[in-house]
């Protein structure tokens, strides 16, 4: 089986804004990778390049073994079924004039197949049930549903074509805190049952603890660390990953949101003019001279890596959570 997703040296510049600057990432069939970073890190742009909502400036995107980087809309059509996306805000991503049944069935039509009404209803009902909605919801409009129900509709739509890869871009962060966990659990259950691969984009490392096989950490358009979930949670190597973990250790999302990331006091620098050398150096408690002049290379750690001058070839190095700030 081909890899669900291969991204090689992806670059996406919007004019002078270097939103994505050389990202490489592979997701094997049936695996879940969480792409984690603060808002403005470029992680959503990676997702948008993968589903070709935008055409990348440079680099390669392969889905299920097919290079889709520069395919036209028409050329993309036969590959549409292989990848779907769930957006952050279901209120904005669902057409308010369409019935839920039409929305869920729409990807079948977009893939170039005409679906007769009776077949459509027959296909939609089990999709709705699969995401915990009753079949009669098919005859309602999105505005008649709650935010959590609408996101379930988005998920049903994304999965109706049985994609090999699902892009989930902050799928719960626009929802009421009270329903976030249930939607996250639904995604995890569906992934286990169906076995699609998933790129789970989130700003919240703690949200991926039980969902992701692998984690990729993004900072200012670049990946700073990659690794298995177990390794990243047990032994984060990059100072930024360590700071993210120190900022989000609580399971309660309400308390988490109120909590200030102590080690990440300053705002993310602008992607218009990223710092020289290591892009994290303006916020890194361990930064030293070389960090301003030399781009850190990616030190391999198992199947992953960390890009920091202080990380040793065996993956060890200082930890900002215990280091003495001098
Ligand atoms: Fe910090 Fe320097 Fe490592 Fe960058 S290279 S993370 S600034 S110590
Ligand atoms: Mg985003």
Automatic annotation (TrEMBL):
Domain called ABC transporter: residue spans: 5-245
Against PROSITE patterns, the record matches this protein to: ABC_TRANSPORTER_1 (PS00211), ABC_TRANSPORTER_2 (PS50893)
The record ties this protein, via InterPro entries, to:
AAA+_ATPase, ABC_transp_ATP-bind, ABC_transporter-like_ATP-bd, ABC_transporter-like_CS, Oligopep_ABC_C, P-loop_NTPase
Identify the SUPFAM superfamilies for this entry.
Answer: P-loop containing nucleoside triphosphate hydrolases
Source organism's superkingdom? Bacteria
Q: Which GO terms describe its molecular function?
A: ATP binding
State the UniProt keywords alphabetically: ATP-binding, Nucleotide-binding, Transport
Span of the secretion signal?
none
Cited Gene3D superfamilies = P-loop containing nucleotide triphosphate hydrolases
Q: Which family does it belong to?
A: Belongs to the ABC transporter superfamily.
User: PANTHER family from the entry?
Assistant: D,D-DIPEPTIDE TRANSPORT ATP-BINDING PROTEIN DDPF-RELATED, TRANSPORT ATP-BINDING PROTEIN
Name the chain's protein.
ATP-binding cassette domain-containing protein
Q: Which organism is it from?
A: Micromonospora parastrephiae
């Amino acid at each position: 089986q081909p890899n669900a997703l291969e991204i090689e040296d992806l670059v996406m510049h919007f004019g002078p804004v270097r939103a994505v600057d050389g990202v490489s990432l592979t997701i094997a069939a049936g695996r879940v990778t969480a792409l984690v970073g603060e808002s403005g890190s470029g992680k959503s742009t990676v997702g948008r390049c993968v589903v070709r909502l935008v055409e990348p400036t440079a680099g390669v995107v392969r889905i299920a073994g097919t290079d889709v980087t520069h395919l036209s809309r028409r050329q993309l059509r036969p590959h549409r079924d292989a990848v779907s996306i769930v957006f952050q805000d279901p209120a904005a991503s669902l057409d308010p004039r369409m019935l839920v049944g039409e929305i869920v069935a729409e990807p079948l039509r977009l893939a170039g197949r005409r679906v007769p009404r009776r077949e459509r209803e027959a296909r939609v009902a089990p999709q709705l049930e699969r995401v915990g909605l009753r079949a009669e919801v098919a005859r309602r409009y999105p505005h008649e549903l709650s935010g959590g129900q609408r996101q379930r509709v988005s998920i049903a739509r994304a999965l109706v074509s049985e994609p090999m890869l699902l892009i989930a871009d902050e799928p719960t962060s626009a929802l009421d805190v009270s329903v976030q966990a249930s939607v996250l659990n639904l995604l995890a259950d569906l992934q286990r049952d169906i076995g699609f691969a998933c790129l789970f984009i989130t700003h919240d490392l703690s949200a991926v603890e039980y969902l992701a096989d692998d984690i990729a950490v993004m900072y200012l358009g670049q990946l700073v660390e990659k690794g298995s979930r177990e390794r990243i949670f047990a032994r984060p190597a990059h100072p930024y990953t360590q700071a993210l973990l120190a900022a989000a250790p609580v399971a309660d999302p309400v308390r988490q949101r109120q909590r200030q990331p102590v080690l990440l006091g300053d705002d993310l620098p602008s992607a218009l003019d990223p710092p020289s050398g290591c892009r994290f150096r303006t916020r890194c408690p361990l930064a030293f001279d070389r960090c301003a002049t030399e781009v850190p290379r990616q030190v391999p750690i198992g199947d992953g890596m960390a890009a920091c001058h202080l990380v040793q070839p065996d993956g060890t190095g200082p930890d900002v959570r215990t280091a003495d700030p001098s």
